[in-house]
Amino acid sequence: MFWWAKTRYSPSRVSRFCGRWSVICGLLILLAGCGSPEPEVAPDDKEAVVQVFMAQLVEGAITPGTIGFHEIPEKFVQEGKALYARYGCTVCHGLEGHGDGPVSYTLKPPPRDFRDPGAYRIGRDVVTIAGTLTDGMPDSPSMVPFPHIKDEERFKIAMYVASLQPSDDLEIDGAWVRATPPNRDVTAAYLVIRNRSDKARELIAVETPAAEYTELHTMRMIDDMMEMEKIERLTVPPRGEAALEPGGNHIMLFGVKRQLAEADSVILTLRFADAKPQTVTAEVSKDRRPTE
């Protein structure tokens, strides 16, 4: 009896026995970890946040009812614009989505103008538009299904199409940025904000990748002299507009990262207190709006 116990539980056998179980337990832990949820993404990791957003769209976790709570990344909008052209959407809907493509006059019903919210018969959110690319429109022979377009690509195209719509009754027009002379890293941006709603809107910040930071400024008469003064927000009245123009309210760009010359453009993202952000492309000009 004692011989059996001594042999069965000798130190060498115990060591081998424990070693095998350690390997088995390690494999079990590894396999169990494969099914565990992914670590949370840090809110300040913008690249990771947008990738999670796209993954949720593809998985169907974001619905037409919840997409409005998400900010559409400008990166995806620009990629969607390129895909929109690559897959031939311009043939019917035109280069800018106005419904004026080269074959538009032959189609019945005619292609929709993506700028018109009333032209979207089944929904104008990103999820619904992406679904239309996959399924087509049953009562529209010209809008056939495009099932070969990859999920991420169709969502990016849908983001570009949705970006053409007026959002939250706000319209940004005539955006331009003053050109900068050599060795100067400060300039100003101007535009007009039109508010078609019955509620006042407040512009609270402007962002651009072209400068280190921006501020909202106004011009005031102080001691018989016109001086520039920083303001925290700019109110756009109901059914009215707010003009940001030389000699009045404007956007200052500080730490401009490169010289801005005629024919350049700058991306501006306007953030409002109670409305979705608005992103516009501002042309660079020396002393007036390029459209004038």
Structural key phrases:
elongated, Cytochrome Bc1 Complex, Chain D, domain 2, 292 residues, 2 domains, 10 strands, Immunoglobulin-like, single chain, ten-stranded mixed beta sheet, disordered N terminus
In short:
The chain is α+β, with helices and mostly antiparallel strands. The chain has helices spanning 2-8, 11-34, 46-59, 74-86, 90-93, 126-135, 151-163, and strands spanning 170-178, 186-195, 201-207, 211-222, 225-231, 234-236, 240-244, 250-256, 265-272, 278-285.
Structure description:
The protein is elongated and about 70 Å long. The chain has helices spanning 2-8, 11-34, 46-59, 74-86, 90-93, 126-135, 151-163, and strands at residues 170-178, 186-195, 201-207, 211-222, 225-231, 234-236, 240-244, 250-256, 265-272, 278-285. Strands 1, 2, 3, 4, 5, 6, 7, 8, 9 and 10 form a ten-stranded mixed sheet that branches. It is an alpha+beta fold. The chain has two domains: 46-163, Cytochrome c-like domain (Cytochrome Bc1 Complex, Chain D, domain 2, Orthogonal Bundle), CATH 1.10.760; 170-285, Immunoglobulin-like, CATH 2.60.40. The model is unreliable at 1-9 and 26-39 (pLDDT under 50). Strand 1 (170-178) and strand 2 form a beta hairpin.
